[in-house]
Amino acid sequence: MSRNNIWYLAGPFHQYQENVKELAREHGLVIVDANVAEGRKGAAKDVPEVTIRPELQAPAVVVEAGSLSQDVADRLTAELGSIGGIVDSFAAQSLERPAGNLGETASRLFEVLEAVNAGVSSLKRERDGEVEKVVGLEQEKAELLKQNAELIKQVEALKAANADPEVEALKAKLDAANVSYRSNASKDALQKQVADLGKQ
User: Fold this and answer.
1) Is residue 175 domain-resident?
2) I need a labelling partner for 198 at 20 to 30 A (CA). Which of 51, 61, 136, 183 fits?
3) CA 39, 42, 28 angle in degrees (round to 5)?
4) Coiled-coil stretches, from where to where (predicted)?
């Protein structure tokens, strides 16, 4: 019988306030980095609660001691947070402007991403318009082909109705003798060709 004693915990492990290695030892658990493990085989059901260190939860701005005032560092940290929010909302395809004063860089980033969104929307509208045109042209083509087929039927019907039985008889005689003639040859021309057949 296997023992479920694996504690799947997202690394890095130094990000937690608690000493996770010590906690694992106390509870008889083996730690496996949840970020790289493919499955959760042998996962323990009862694992200790851990919390991420507060200084790692907010974006950090690293500066040399004394080079920036706390006010400037706070503004940079706030702007970095705004940039993170803007990027996250853009990645989720729902660009949203964070509340409050964004700062110069965050404002510029928002404007650029807003322009990108507008460009993408414009391209989508253009594409959809072109698709509609293609569909319209396909329908028009189908209608024209249908009309063409109808016209061909009408022309054939008119030809059959207007056919002179004498002309058809002359053409049949020439066909039987394997003599070529113009399809639109006049009755007189056909009679002359048939008469020439008799002379041969």
Assistant:
1) yes
2) 183
3) 130
4) 120-161
